[in-house]
């Protein structure tokens, strides 16, 4: 990962505890050999990404950094007790099980493997690929190359196809669900996406009038609340394959050759592939409006809009081509509905979008996209119709 994106870490992880774990005889392996004779003063821990539920750190021995690669440490955060997310249980042991199952079904999947997780510890050690940037960094730098779009959906479709009902027997998927016991993760995502954001006692109401206005509209417009309930039912009852479940900006990283790797599988469960695609599109929509807020020249703004819309279109077409789903129209209708719900969730949840912090116009425009998609999702049957509805004001 790009060192320029790292920040020294002091408070969150104890380097001595990490080093003590790495130097235990029972964990002796090639991947951690660089730390066997190291002292606490030799170890450097840099924050790479500060996510919603977890953070990633780069750990290396500064006395031999030129000879050996660093490793990645994933640390699960403690959530504020007054947060609606305070009851969420994020476990690394579950994520490790998911990654092991993915390797069983599809050894060539592009996910970051977990080297080691000690039970009851809030951290784990992940493999270190020559990763350069996260999706957040690429989009912030206006990197909307079509190769990038194709690489992301290729990695996603590879994971989906490995366990999808269309390519496997029903009992195969039922066995997987029983082995992983994924229901608790589905329940968490369901609560975070379709319930918590719409509660009248949302703790952000007092400090954000946009949230107050949004909740008022949801409550006054039965068509919106009904659509949210419909999508909640689709999410709850659709069992297609093992999905990522939380595909946000910091869950995708790229190598220098533009291969896309996925991480943060702590909410992975058996569910609808349309939900993962919706989460992916919301990442793009977020930066669409982020950049529009900062453009001041109409010509530049227009060219940018066309470029990013094409980026999203190629993403959708490429995914459909790879998956060859029997009901593509149904898929895109679900994607539209889930996209609407996910937009509202990300703007209303307690850990709302940092990317749009201070971008009042962008947040309002993005919410309008969410409402339009919820109004019209039943009539959306392709990526083209989804984009037309979503960005009709831009067109």
Automatic annotation (TrEMBL):
It comes from the Eukaryota. Keywords: ATP-binding, Kinase, Nucleotide-binding, Transferase. The keyword Magnesium does not apply. SUPFAM superfamilies: Protein kinase-like (PK-like) (SSF56112). GO terms for molecular function: ATP binding; kinase activity. Gene3D superfamilies: 3.90.1200.10. InterPro entries: Kinase-like_dom_sf. Belongs to the methylthioribose kinase family. This is Methylthioribose kinase. It comes from Octopus vulgaris (Common octopus).
């Amino acid at each position: 990962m790009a060192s320029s994106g790292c920040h020294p870490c002091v408070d969150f992880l104890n380097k001595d505890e990490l080093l003590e774990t790495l130097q235990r005889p029972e964990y002796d392996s090639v991947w951690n050999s660089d730390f066997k004779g190291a002292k606490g003063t030799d170890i450097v821990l840099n924050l790479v990404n500060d996510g919603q539920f977890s953070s990633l750190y780069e750990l290396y021995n500064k006395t031999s950094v030129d000879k050996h690669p660093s490793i990645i440490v994933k640390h699960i955060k403690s959530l504020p007790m007054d947060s609606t997310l305070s009851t969420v249980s994020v476990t690394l042991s579950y994520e490790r099980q998911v990654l092991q199952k993915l390797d069983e079904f599809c050894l060539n999947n592009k996910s970051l493997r977990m080297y080691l997780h000690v039970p009851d510890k809030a951290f784990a050690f992940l493999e270190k690929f020559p990763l350069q940037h996260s999706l957040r960094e690429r989009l912030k730098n206006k990197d909307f190359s079509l190769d990038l779009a194709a690489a992301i959906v290729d990695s996603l479709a590879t994971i989906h196809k490995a366990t999808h009902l269309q390519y496997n027997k029903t009992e195969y998927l039922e066995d997987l669900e029983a082995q992983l016991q994924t229901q608790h993760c589905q329940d968490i995502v369901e609560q975070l996406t379709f319930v918590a954001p719409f509660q009248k006692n949302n703790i952000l109401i007092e400090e954000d009038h946009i949230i107050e206005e949004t909740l008022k509209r949801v409550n006054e417009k039965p068509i919106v609340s009904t659509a949210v309930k419909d999508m909640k039912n689709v999410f709850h009852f659709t069992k297609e394959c093992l999905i990522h479940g939380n595909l946000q900006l910091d869950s995708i990283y790229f190598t220098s050759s533009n291969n896309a790797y996925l991480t943060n599988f702590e909410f992975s469960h058996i569910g609808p592939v349309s939900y993962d695609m919706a989460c992916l599109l919301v990442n793009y929509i977020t930066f669409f409006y982020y950049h529009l807020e900062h453009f001041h020249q109409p010509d530049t703004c227009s060219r940018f809009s066309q470029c990013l819309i094409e980026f999203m279109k190629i993403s959708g077409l490429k995914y459909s081509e790879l998956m060859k789903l029997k009901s593509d129209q149904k898929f895109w209708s679900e994607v539209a509905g889930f996209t609407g719900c996910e937009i509202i969730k990300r703007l209303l949840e307690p850990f709302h979008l940092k990317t749009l912090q201070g971008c009042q116009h962008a947040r309002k425009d993005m919410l309008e996209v969410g409402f339009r998609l919820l109004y019209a999702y039943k009539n959306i049957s392709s990526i083209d119709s989804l984009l037309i509805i979503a960005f009709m004001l831009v067109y």
